[in-house]
Amino acid sequence: MKDKVQALAGGMMVSIIVLVIAGIFIGVGAGVVNQMEAQDSIIFAFFKLMLDLGLMVMRNLPPFFAIGLAFALSKSEKGWAAFTGFTMFMCFNVAIGSIAAFNGWTPETTTVDYLVNNMGYDKVAAQNFNSLWGENLGVFSFNMGIFSGIIVGCITAALHNRFYKFEMPGMLSFFSGPRAVVIFAYIIIMPISIIGYYAWPPIAGGLQSITTLITSSGLFGSFLYGVFDKGLLPFGLHHLIAFPIEYTRVGGVMEIDGVLYEGVRNIMNGQMSSPDAIGYITHNFTSGRIPIQIGGLTGAAYAMYVTAKPQNKKKVAAIMIPAVFTAAVIGITEPLEYTFLFVQPFLFFAVHVPLNGLAYIITEFFGVSIHGNQLLFMVPNILQPEKVHALALLWIIPLYFVVYFYTFKYLILKFDSKTPGRDDNDDADIALYSKADLKKKKEQAAVGLPVEIIKALGGADNIDNVSNCATRLRISLYDETMAATDDIWIKKLNAIGVVRMPKGIQIIYGANVITIASAIKEELGIDS
After folding, report:
1. What residues have CB less than 8 Å from 171, skipping those under 6 apart?
2. DSSP letters along 261-280, please?
3. How do strand 133-136 and strand 139-142 relate by DSSP bridges?
4. Apex CA 444: angle with CA 441 and CA 447, to 5°?
5. Could you say which DSSP state residue 348 is in?
6. CA distance 141 to 84
7. How many angstroms separate the CA atoms of 221 and 249, rounded?
8. In this predicted structure, what is the pLDDT of residue 444?
């Protein structure tokens, strides 16, 4: 079960890619459009187009997740899986709308005024019931947000993986294989829609209760979120904590310029696009990452550099500087975090995790209101500085650098932690390479590494499925005991870390994992 949950978390990263692009387009487009008075110029039209493209994504998230998850979770014939995912998504919503109409619910009968004046609802009950409904690509249906896309995408992938090799009788052989899955999708969507129609209202009520708990818990809720978000990182489950808060109504609901946005990240994108918004929400569960990624981990890296043996400091710096840059600019923190997680778990769980939760409290308490938590994606803030309230970061970030530096330095020396450059046998791991060595290493990474990884996984016959998220290679295995030891993965196969589980393994490689995964699939003959 755990590996399936982790696969789901990794699969959602496919759809998140388009959200990142949409955020940049909204930020740049709105930043220019909201400052221009002349609306008949080519410049205005161009940036208005950028804004509209970004908002198109934000207003149509469910189908992106249905298609993305169907693609990511399918084992083969991924193009057909994605097509089936979109087909099932449209069928699901049409079926929900049809069942609703049979029961008397239409766009006209679900309005607040109609419910109050004709159905005897009080205003609050009418508003709650009205919030259940909406449109998906022009189809009247439940307003399930991205949950509808996630549900349909997962069902599609399961159906596709089960039947994409299905053989029809001779006369119907044209409809064999993945074409059969499309046919089965039309059949299975009917009972699924009936279940969805009756199950969603109580689920939506439960989500509303969770929303109320989170939004009313204030700073304590922010602390818990920060602790779980980082504490679950080694287990690959951190996306399942962040995702509902950032992209679903669990993180809150806000109407901006007549459009209802769900989830703190979507709300902030809506505020960024609105000329009337004066700032971003502070209870956003994202600003707390800024002190960690820019200040804290930089301090930890500097502590590891300072405590390294004198003869190894230049080599350690060569490793740490790119890792610090990646964490601050792109937001990929795992290379640094796994460096001290595997040599001294105490530093991670007893120091890094609670300090992460504390960062969320501090930024929220001092009213930090800023869009983005990586330097690369903060550019839109420059275009609309009046919306940004982040002066407190000028002392919070240095404070976190100091706290992390002295805490890590003290504990590394006290426990004699074998962070990079402190082990007597560290030379081979942190050695500088000549130009010839570098060329050889690149050739090995491009050609030899996938082959070696397959061997370390117990051979091609032991591999059930290959996928990846932002930094992890996620492998489903028939026999997990055949996989190589952690020492081989880290010292011989360039991995940052390893997470093991029943019938599977995750190998952390960092941002270049997508190219490694593609090379492995090509070597195995797996359809990407």
Report:
1. none
2. EESHHHHHHHHHH-TT--S-
3. antiparallel
4. 150
5. I
6. 20
7. 16
8. 46
* Predicted confidence (pLDDT) per residue in 359-416, tens digit: 999 999 999 988 888 887 787 788 888 888 989 999 999 999 999 999 999 999 988 8
> Which residues of the chain fall short of a pLDDT of 70?
1-13, 208, 210-215, 235-241, 342-343, 423-448, 470, 511, 527-528
- β-bridge pairing 259-262 and 463-468: unpaired
Whether 154 is catalytic is no
Sign (positive or negative) of CA dihedral 198, 199, 200, 203 = positive
Please answer whether residues 100 and 200 qualify as being in contact, where contact means their C-beta atoms are separated by less than 8 angstroms.
no
Letter string b/e over residues 323-345, b meaning 16 or more CB atoms within 10 A of that residue's CB: bbebbbeebbbbbbbbbbbbbbe
For 440, the token pair is: 């050889």
**Alpha-carbon span 470 to 243, nearest angstrom:** 14
| Active-site hit among 144, 456, 469, 520 | 469
What are residue 452's phi and psi, to 5 degrees? -65, -35
Nearest Cα to 309, choosing from 404, 427, 428?
Answer: 427
The H or E element spanning position 468 is: strand 463-468
Query: Which amino acid, 405?
Result: F
Q: Is 426 helix (H, G, I), strand (E, B) or coil?
A: coil
